[in-house]
Amino acid sequence: MKKDNKIYGFIRELNPITKLILVLSLGIGCMIYPSSFLGYYLLVIILILSFFMGTGRKVSLLILGFGIPVTLMLLFIQGLYSPKNTIIIADLGFASLGLEGTMYALKISSTLLVFLTTFYLFLNSTKNSETVAALTQSGLNMKIGYLILASLNVVPQMQRKVKIIQEAQESRGVEVTGSFLQRAKAFLPLIGPVVLSSLTDAQERGMTLETRGFSIKGIKPTTLIEVKHKPSDTFLKGFSIFFLLICLIVRFWN
């Protein structure tokens, strides 16, 4: 279980700002680095790490479900029709596969996958409330922090409401399973109540915050969640900066 997983526990206890910096530095580093191989090396490391964290299956499905279609699409567009193609590696008859376009497509694909997988691990190991608390403790305006938190919570809240409404309909004898048409007929009537209830919840949360003095100026706000900064956070932030510097040096050295 995740609770007994030491690696998951270590990543779970990292400062959310540290994890965000790692996500951005790895993705931007892949963009800066001239070769696509760095992205795929990082993907292998991320995949191994995800298995140690207990989320390897989901990360693998994410890579296969998103990575393969996107890579094939990019290879088709860039590999066959990129104006940068000068070295032909395969003649397919209707078009020629170029080396430059192929490498560029692989670089874009690997960069997207690094961003996607690292951000997934970040979301999987960090609570939204902790992320916003860390941002506000770093100096972010409380109102902007609330907007970020509300945006992050929209999808999970709507999913919970849909599940509750579906269970209520099923208890009343409404068919919510079966063929695609049956599920579509059962799902379409849910859209109105879910959207309206979400808007009502947002209004009620706003009124609750106002009654608690959320907009009062001239005072120092407090937070229920306190995010700590450990020596490991300092080390990983330094590693992120070092990684970006190495990528920049390799990029401009060539």
From TrEMBL:
Keywords of the record: Membrane, Transmembrane, Transmembrane helix
Coiled coil: none
Spans traversing the lipid bilayer: 20-53, 59-81, 102-123, 234-253
Keyword Transcription (UniProt): no
PROSITE patterns: PROKAR_LIPOPROTEIN (PS51257)
Matching CDD domains: EcfT
Topology versus the membrane: Multi-pass membrane protein
InterPro entries from the UniProt entry: ABC/ECF_trnsptr_transmembrane (IPR003339)
Protein name: Cobalt transporter
Taxonomic placement: Bacteria, Bacillati, Bacillota, Bacilli, Lactobacillales
